Amino acid sequence: METNKFSNQDINRLLKRGVCEVIVKEELVTALKSGKVLRLKEGFDPSFPDIHLGHMVGLKKLREFQDIGHQVVLIVGDWTAQIGDPSGASVTRPMLSAEHVKTNAKTYMEQFFKIVDKEKTEVRWQSEWFGNFNLADVIKLTSKFTIAQILARDDFSKRYNANQPITITEFLYPLLQAYDSVAIKADVEFGGTDQKFNLLVGRELQTMLGQRPQQVLMVPLLVGTDGVHKMSKSLGNYIGVAESPENIFGKVMSIPDGIIMNYFELITCVSDQELDEFRQLLDKNAVNPMELKKRLGREIVTKLHDAKSAITAEEHFAKVVQNKEIPNEIEECFFNLDSSMDLKELLTSINLAKSRSDAGRLISQGAVSIDGSVVVCNSMKLESGCVIKVGKRRFAKIINSDIIK
Predict the structure, then answer these.
(1) Per the confidence metrics, is the pTM higher than 0.70?
(2) What is the pLDDT of residues 83-98, one digit of tens each?
(3) Structural domains in the chain plus CATH codes
(4) Which of 85, 204, 249, 385 has a 20 to 30 Å separation from 33 between CA atoms?
(5) How much is the average pLDDT of 16-26?
(6) How far are the Cα atoms of 13, 119, 235, 286 from residue 271, in angstroms, in the given order?
């Protein structure tokens, strides 16, 4: 099979926006010009079910390649997810059951296909090849690399020099990810700049086993809503792909002005020409950054939901945040209100706080109000129909369950 052949200008555009580095660029350009359908590898660890806009950077680039005829191959890391991190040192790599992995993977793929075309994506599970691996296969794989090569990875080197423990299992992960590329005969592997070492191991292993080495396309790491650190669920500075239109729009509106153009470039399809116009307007202070953030919010919500949802989300933001009104639709939560309520427990149970300690922090910061009055204590008697507000955008209406009996 062949794809359409493209000019140097088309290819330069494809490999420029939202791309940090390509290894080896000349080889990838040649492959794109050949018209051959390339197998584009993207792997994910189903240790957790949700993805955020940070993941969307690579997925958007995958979709661009897919739209011109190339084959996306999604690798579900079900086998390595079940291994986890036996040392217990990594909270991001918990040991999971096969059923848990499948549940997470299903949710992840539903979100993945909000961006990438499901009908044109090949889904492969690691267990297809690792499920039959025996000890001899593992030893053969490890014999391809030296400890010195693995210690060249920056985080391993730092931990080794600091006399911090590194398990043998952790050393295996780059090799297992590399073998995925061999198993599916990847032509190009996509990943963030923090994955460079692992991506290059894939190239090397393919060469050792007689395959043409994959090209490596690295995308930048999206800065989170705090404007400082990379987007991460653990840091709480993320915008989830599966969140409601109102939450997505509201969070976009909260990002610092300095990263507006970064978001436009990496996760929207707004033309380069229009982006240049936006930059000029910002440089000349000829536009209110909030207006550009509203446009950004509409673009993202439309991509992940639809245009109607984007309009509704913007109206919700104007009503609730800008005009400080109560939204028309609020989730109702039913409780027995005969006695004084523990507000920390209440906020946690209705998902307005992550934990009791988080609830206590919100209350102490004055971020919690009931019917417009800021809460100053941890327990109080509530009236049926009262509205609890946390922060600028989160609401819940408390109903006395005795009333409906």
Answers:
(1) yes
(2) 654 444 444 455 667 7
(3) 8-219 (3.40.50.620), 245-322 (1.10.240.10), 332-404 (3.10.290.10)
(4) 204
(5) 93
(6) 11, 26, 31, 20
